[in-house]
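Researcher: Final request for today, and then I'll write up notes for the group meeting. The sequence and the SMILES for flavin-adenine dinucleotide follow.
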Amino acid sequence: MAETVTQSAFDEAALTQLEDGFRGQLVRPDDPGYDEHRKVWNGSIIRFPALIARCAGVADVIAALRFAKETGLQVAVRGGGHSFPGLSVCDGGVVVDLGLMKGIRVDPEARTTRVQAGVLLGELDRETQAFGLAVPSGIVTHTGVAGLTLGGGIGWLMRKHGLTVDQLVSADLVTADGELVRASASENSDLFWGLRGGGGNFGVVTEFEFCLVPAGPAVMAGPIFWPIEDSPRLLRFYRDWIAEAPDELMTIIVHRKAPALPFVPTELHGKLVVSVIVCYCGPLEEGERVVRPLKSFGSPVLDLCEPKPFVAHQTMFDPSFKHDWWYYMRACDVGELNDEVIDITVDHARRIRSPLTAFPIWQGGGAVGRVGDDETAFHGRGAGHTFNITSVCATADGFDEEREWVRDFWSALGPYHETVYVNFLMDEGEERVKQAYGPDKYERLKALKRHWDPDNFFRLNQNIAP
Ligand SMILES: Cc1cc2nc3c(=O)[nH]c(=O)nc-3n(C[C@H](O)[C@H](O)[C@H](O)COP(=O)(O)OP(=O)(O)OC[C@H]3O[C@@H](n4cnc5c(N)ncnc54)[C@H](O)[C@@H]3O)c2cc1C
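Model: Predicted protein-flavin-adenine dinucleotide complex:
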């Protein structure tokens, strides 16, 4: 693969200067490991950067950004590499890869943690759960803390404890000018507002500080499955059941073909099913009581909802979203699961072709909606449900057809679209980014961008043009 890259004609003297003292690793197209390090999670994104700067610390980040500026190369910034549209890798430019920056320090007394920008969600849970604590984050352990946080961060604990950004205390950021600044409620507070949802538009965050919340260590959690034929009735029942749900309860609906995994009965393999995945983050007995009506609905074909370690539940989706598979996704928030939305959903779920396609519908509400909409750049706190219409194929085979299915489904939901979560956007253009923030916040973010990055040096992101 590496030989397909045209060697960039950048000034070798600038590279020599970058190499001088660089603590991490600089990887060029001819170096061993280039292919491994240029790849991102989504296998359908195939790009060839001129240089991958695997930074070991803040000084490396500053040096890599200076190099990119001096050579005029485009910059892609990578935390965990999970951008759906592959915004953390570019052709012919510099990838500022933070994956080596793995420092995590937990202060169990103060209930805070400092987390470097290369940490993945599972690594953070590992450290915080040692003390029965957590940063509310996402549902797949190999996702990066950095990109997820900068977009908002939704997950199993959000209805009880809010978004990831709602627990953010401060962030250290290297600006386009190569300066290190801190953003918090008391320092650069406008920037702090913008970082809580505004993505990678303002600079490279090298370290986050979060408050920790109690979580588990055991939770009542897991999926319950029914045949797809039950979906229309189940979703109507579910809608009523969650109407009075306590904040401790978070659920996600998934329609898919049942995978051939050891815990799935053979007769279900490949059959379309609907599942409700539960996480109750309060006392186990309470969780059992709250979940009982759902478990009693109809005749589930498989019930894996039981007490288990929170970290085990966090890994549940990992095998469904493996690295290197081909992904396409469109997203929207809807206010409610009304009859029309349910019918559109079931109709499209029946048309899933790929054995790997699995699309989550997230429950909203709870603590997320109680934070004032203006308090953070994140928009969409009023979302009733977030549709994350994802097609999954192991290779390019069948990818185009499955992508068309995503687009059809998303368009059919058009009349019910409300907000959209910025971290669930593909490369959809400025209007969609604007929709993700709403017109007022978008204007405020533009003003911030003009202040912190007037030349749009950081533009490979859900870009807010200055
Ligand atoms: C399998 C999977 C599961 C997901 N689950 C969830 C979920 O449960 N909840 C949720 O909220 N989201 C979820 N997402 C969406 C996810 O939040 C975004 O894809 C996010 O961008 C991933 O962050 P990353 O660091 O891994 O990505 P990267 O691809 O490394 O980065 C994405 C973008 O973020 C910016 N960025 C990354 N690091 C930095 C940094 N240090 N400083 C400045 N900018 C930076 C850059 O603009 C970059 O282009 C999921 C995505 C995937 C692929």
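Model: Residues 1-6 have pLDDT under 50 and may be disordered. The pocket of flavin-adenine dinucleotide is lined by residues 41, 77-84, 87-88, 98, 117, 138-140, 143-144, 146-148, 150-155, 199-200, 204-205, 321, 423, 460-461 (CB under 6 Å).
Researcher: Thanks, that's everything.
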